[in-house]
Write a sequence for this structure.
């Protein structure tokens, strides 16, 4: 089987009414199916589908999915059956596994309208973002399928007469995937696809806020031909994830989520209790406190909309979102004034309404957190924009712009993960780089400058995993912007990049002596 | 149809060609000729020069300006000797000051070629100059992008003032071509331009456009609504047809919109415009300005990045053929609509004149690019209007860069003309 080269799945063209109508049709198709039932799924045996509920953040009375709550016994059973399945699944040629993943991609493509609508309902992801999320999920399947086929061929090694050297990348065994709600399809899909493509079995524990999306993902993968035992779904709460991480039968853990949980996972994974004969590999993608630097020569016509988009799209609930703007003193006042005016035009509303810029945040706890930081910003500094009217029902928080904060303010330090952005004055671009370097996070960053020298200098200095120059800082594309952070923002390789799959394999080298009694037998 | 027309097109085209004011017939002449010629042949140098022109207004000093210039030139794999000297000059502070001053003067000179003045008042002399040569004008107010309600309000206020200024200037002038004609951009009238929610921008911009239409009617001025990138097309078209369809505007002002021939969907858009014109008769009739479209690179790049099929014709010949087909449909639809053909392509213009065969037709050109064609058309007795951007240098940069891009495009008509292609070749059917 020879696959055509990878290309990104095109998003819908929402500037055309026919594509907008199509999405609304997807919502009409989905609504009668709600609430979805998402059972604990182990080896094709569906367990209970009662235990947790996901609700519409814009209308918390609406239940979107009713899911099982996996317990310790489910974890135990899922890992045991996955370990058995992994041997058979891992023994398949990579091309056969790739074929199955590509079939799953085709199923997601067929269902893309419904899947986007599900994200709108379950996670309040606005249409354009929801559609892009489905496309990214498809991209991960298509991309890792191809990468795994290439990886199986192994690298070229130096060969000399009388010996034959070969290097292979072999599946680790059982991969635990613990995924977040903010990319409810794409991120679980990416981590799961990476594990499966390389021949591992996967046990997926999705975020409790988005079991419906994860259920649809697993359904598509099973329908495409992933053996039931090789992919288990464990909806549930944090304790299920914790049990999964501790399980001695898990070989690798792929996690995307908060820094606190990520570090806890790294600690737990370092344990090697009796009976465990391996060190667990952890791929952890954690938080950020991402800065955009604006130089004195920046084009504000481009910087202002890009900053506003980076900070507020999906209510700032992307790990790549812009949290801090560090602006050169020569233009900070003008920049602040223009951002302030732009923030005031943002549309706060339901995710299912085209044109909504800022949807509700995911849940009450998130809402309280954002509100606390907004209050802190008001008491320690100045809130330049915010506090506008928002709908009563749902977890809406007005987009907020804060400035004049003391350098040690928690508002400047903590990841808030909501629609709040700060602006700081810096005397020079060097000083801005110092600020970024002082942060424990290093996920994304942005720079607006039209000087090639400045671009070169800042690029050399910033430790961030993904730096965007003269554009918005969210929306990494598979194969184009391999994504992931450094420092306390992440460990492991870049998702959607050429080295990601190595995390899910172990390398083995075989050297064969081909000389017998002075005769080389090749 | 086009083939029957060919002899007439040749005749008109040759006559216009002979009427060009300058024997060199080089529309690029007044620009820094060598720089533009280099830019047209060397893509990397072109990028460096455009980036420099683009950043000029944001530079804080001559030193800063020189550093940017050399920064761009440093990235070139090879530099022509004259530019190499510039880089060497920039090694000293005094050298940088001199280089910065020269470069700033160069950009100002270039900008003035395309931009008629800092304000409508400042552009008055330029307008009188045009009027005295029998050429009309449409003034376009350059400005920063609109990102807030306050900026949209300011733009609307500038438009209202400009209408007053233009009406006053036209009234004070006895010249035959004098009239008040303002082109406005919908994206500047609202911060709510959302490609996925065209109603938001339409409703918001309507609140600012309606008073402008009333003002134009009182003053007897013409208001023309420009077309921008495809992202704003639905908003713009809905807005114009909705507002002009309102009872209150059935008797004026004189108003118009733009049809972009590079769009594959442009024939369907014309269907919609003509259906509207039949259902909403107004006096005077809507002016439809047919253009090729100024956002070709933007549309193609955006489509490529998203994996969409480009919304524009990718071959120049397809675009030119569509331009001619739309020209004929528009002329046939008159007097339901009034027709303005805006092109610097001698073939497209000659085709329109030949097909019109004496029917009412206005021809439009851009200041800085179509001046000589405009003169030739006026000399031959055709009605001509020059599109005159007005505004400061900062605000004008985006416009200037777009015009320069167009001017140095490999397949640009003006480029071929400047290279001295024979008139028969320039007039061949696309």
């Amino acid at each position: 089987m020879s696959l055509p080269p990878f290309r990104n799945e095109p998003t819908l063209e929402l500037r055309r009414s026919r594509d907008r109508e199509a999405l609304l049709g997807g919502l009409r198709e989905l609504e009668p199916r709600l609430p979805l039932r998402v059972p604990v799924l182990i080896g094709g045996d569906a367990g209970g589908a009662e235990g947790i509920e996901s609700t519409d953040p814009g209308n918390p009375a609406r239940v979107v999915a009713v899911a099982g709550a996996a317990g310790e016994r489910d974890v135990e059973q899922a890992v045991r059956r996955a370990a058995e399945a992994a041997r058979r699944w891992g023994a398949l040629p990579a091309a056969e596994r790739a074929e199955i993943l590509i079939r799953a991609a085709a199923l997601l493509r067929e269902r893309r309208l419904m899947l986007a609508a599900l994200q709108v309902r379950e996670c309040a992801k606005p249409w354009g973002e929801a559609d892009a999320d489905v496309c990214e999920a498809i991209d991960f399947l298509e991309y890792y399928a191809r990468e795994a086929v290439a990886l199986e061929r192994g690298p070229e090694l130096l060969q000399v007469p009388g010996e034959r050297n070969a290097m292979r990348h072999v599946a680790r065994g059982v991969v635990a995937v613990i995924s977040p709600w903010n990319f409810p399809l794409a991120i679980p899909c990416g981590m799961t696809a990476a594990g499966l493509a390389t021949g591992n079995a996967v046990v997926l524990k999705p975020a409790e806020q988005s079991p419906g999306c994860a259920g649809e993902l697993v359904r598509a993968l099973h329908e495409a031909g992933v053996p039931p035992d090789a992919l288990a779904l464990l909806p549930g709460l944090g304790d299920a994830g914790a049990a999964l991480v501790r399980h001695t039968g898990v070989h690798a853990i792929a996690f995307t989520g908060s820094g606190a949980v990520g570090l806890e996972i790294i600690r737990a994974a370092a344990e090697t209790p009796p009976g465990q004969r391996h060190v667990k590999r952890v791929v952890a993608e954690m938080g950020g406190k991402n800065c955009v630097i604006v130089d004195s020569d920046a084009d504000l016509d481009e910087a202002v909309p890009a900053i506003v988009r980076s900070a507020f799209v999906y209510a700032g609930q992307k790990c790549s979102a812009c949290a801090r703007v560090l602006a050169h003193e020569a233009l900070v006042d003008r920049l602040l004034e223009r951002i302030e005016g732009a923030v005031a035009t943002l549309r706060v509303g339901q995710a299912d309404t085209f044109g909504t810029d800022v949807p509700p945040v995911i849940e009450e706890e998130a809402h309280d957190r954002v509100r606390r930081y907004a209050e802190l910003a008001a008491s320690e500094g100045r809130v330049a924009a915010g506090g506008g009217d928002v709908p009563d029902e749902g977890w809406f928080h007005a987009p907020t712009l804060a400035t004049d904060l003391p350098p040690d303010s928690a508002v400047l330090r903590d990841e808030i993960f909501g629609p709040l952005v700060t602006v700081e004055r810096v005397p020079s671009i060097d000083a801005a780089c110092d600020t970024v370097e002082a942060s424990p996070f290093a996920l994304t960053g942005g720079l607006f400058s039209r000087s090639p020298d400045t671009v070169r200098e800042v690029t050399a200095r910033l430790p961030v995993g993904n730096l965007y120059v003269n554009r918005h800082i969210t929306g990494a594309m598979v194969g184009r912007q391999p994504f992931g952070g450094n420092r306390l923002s992440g460990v492991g390789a870049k998702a959607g990049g050429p080295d990601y799959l190595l995390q899910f394999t172990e390398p083995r080298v075989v050297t064969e002596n081909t000389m017998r009694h002075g005769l080389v037998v090749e | 149809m086009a083939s029957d027309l060919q002899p007439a097109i040749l005749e008109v085209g040759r006559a216009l060609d002979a009427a060009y004011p300058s024997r060199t017939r080089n529309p690029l002449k007044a620009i820094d000729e060598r720089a533009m010629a280099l830019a047209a042949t060397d893509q990397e140098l072109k990028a460096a020069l455009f980036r420099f022109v683009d950043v000029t207004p944001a530079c804080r000093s001559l030193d800063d300006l020189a550093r940017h210039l050399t920064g761009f030139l440093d990235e070139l794999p090879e530099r022509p000797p004259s530019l190499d000297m510039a880089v060497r000059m920039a090694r000293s502070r005094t050298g940088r000051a001199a280089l910065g001053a020269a470069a700033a003067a160069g950009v100002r000179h270039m900008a003035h070629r395309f931009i008629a003045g800092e304000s409508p008042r400042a552009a008055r002399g330029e307008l009188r100059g045009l009027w005295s040569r029998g050429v009309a004008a449409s003034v376009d107010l350059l400005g920063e992008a609109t990102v807030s309600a306050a900026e949209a309000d300011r733009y609307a206020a500038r438009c209202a003032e400009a209408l007053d200024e233009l009406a006053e200037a036209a009234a004070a002038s006895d010249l035959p071509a004098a009239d008040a004609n303002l082109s406005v951009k919908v994206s500047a009238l609202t911060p709510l331009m959302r490609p996925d929610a065209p109603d938001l921008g339409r409703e918001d911009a309507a609140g600012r456009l309606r008073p402008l239409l009333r003002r134009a009617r009182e003053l007897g001025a013409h208001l023309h609504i420009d077309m921008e990138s495809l992202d704003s097309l639905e908003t713009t078209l809905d807005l114009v047809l909705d507002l002009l369809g309102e009872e209150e505007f059935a008797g004026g002002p004189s108003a118009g919109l733009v049809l972009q021939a590079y769009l594959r969907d442009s024939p369907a858009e014309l269907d919609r415009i003509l259906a509207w014109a039949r259902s909403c008769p107004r006096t005077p009739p809507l002016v439809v300005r047919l253009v090729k479209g100024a956002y070709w690179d933007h549309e193609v790049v955006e489509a490529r990045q998203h994996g969409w099929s480009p919304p524009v014709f990718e071959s120049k010949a397809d675009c030119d053929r569509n331009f001619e087909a739309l020209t004929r449909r528009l002329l046939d639809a008159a007097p339901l609509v009034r027709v303005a053909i805006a092109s610097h392509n001698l073939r497209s213009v000659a085709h329109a004149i030949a097909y019109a065969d004496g029917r009412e037709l206005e021809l439009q050109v851009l200041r800085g690019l179509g001046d000589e064609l405009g003169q030739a058309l006026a000399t031959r007795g055709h009605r001509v209007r020059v599109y005159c951007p007005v505004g400061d240098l900062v605000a004008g940069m985006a416009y200037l860069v777009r015009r320069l891009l167009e001017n140095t495009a490999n397949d640009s008509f003006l480029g071929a003309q400047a290279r001295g292609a024979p008139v028969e070749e320039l007039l061949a059917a696309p």
Chain B touches chain A through 37 residues (CB under 8 Å). The longest strand of chain B covers residues 383-390.
